[in-house]
Q: What sequence folds into this?
């Protein structure tokens, strides 16, 4: 089986309030297959966001290996990590993180501009993605003119812009009602299928989010204590 992500004995500690050492990750082992949608669940402080940050190259683990598409990212210099983030990883956040002064079209276009994609190819890709998330009729609207669910759909389109192999979603439905939560989770699943990406979702919502994924990994005190395969 082809794995997009492999974590091998990943540890991460950090200082809190200048003195207290928090052991956020205490030996995480996990694998995510190509096209798989995996939920990471656990109480606040269990290490979910720290794990996503380490996989997303935002934080560096103290020890262990994190392999993305066959590359051990823990051994790469910052310049190479920037390239990995740009080409292989898309991020979806709880608070959407859209640029308020830009239109829907322009928000999705930003990663393509950074990647140096020519204008005509950018337009084609942005329209393809906005159609995928059902917002092709809202291209000239700004984030303030959209509902929370619509803003998150724009964020998903933006995350997919450079055709990453991995989407990391940190509490992507935390600010949404139940109906929009269902729409966003189904959309992430559809996008994973159509774009060939794997998705890792950190969530508190077991019923409405985690149980719609392929697998659920239970994280507690920095360790995966249980794994469930979700029956469809």
A:
């Amino acid at each position: 089986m082809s794995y997009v992500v492999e974590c091998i004995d990943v540890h991460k500690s950090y200082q809190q309030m200048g003195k207290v050492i928090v052991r956020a990750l205490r030996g995480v082992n996990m694998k995510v297959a190509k096209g798989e949608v995996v939920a990471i669940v656990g109480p606040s402080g269990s290490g979910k966001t720290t794990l996503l940050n380490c996989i997303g190259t935002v934080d560096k683990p103290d020890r262990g290996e994190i392999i993305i598409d066959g590359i051990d990212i823990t051994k790469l210099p910052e310049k190479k990590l920037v390239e990995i983030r740009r080409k292989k990883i898309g991020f979806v956040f709880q608070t959407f993180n859209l640029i308020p002064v830009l239109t829907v079209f322009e928000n999705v276009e930003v990663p393509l501009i950074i990647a140096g994609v020519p204008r005509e190819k950018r337009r084609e890709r942005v329209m393809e993605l906005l159609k995928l998330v059902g917002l092709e009729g809202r291209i000239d609207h700004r984030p303030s003119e959209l509902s929370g669910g619509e803003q998150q759909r724009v964020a998903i389109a933006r995350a997919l812009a450079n055709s990453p192999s991995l989407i990391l979603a940190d509490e992507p439905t935390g600010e949404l009602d139940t109906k929009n939560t269902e729409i966003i989770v189904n959309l992430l699943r559809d996008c994973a299928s159509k774009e060939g990406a794997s998705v890792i979702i950190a969530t508190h919502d077991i019923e409405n989010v985690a149980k719609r994924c392929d697998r659920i990994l239970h994280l507690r005190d920095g360790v995966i204590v249980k794994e469930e395969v979700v029956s469809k």
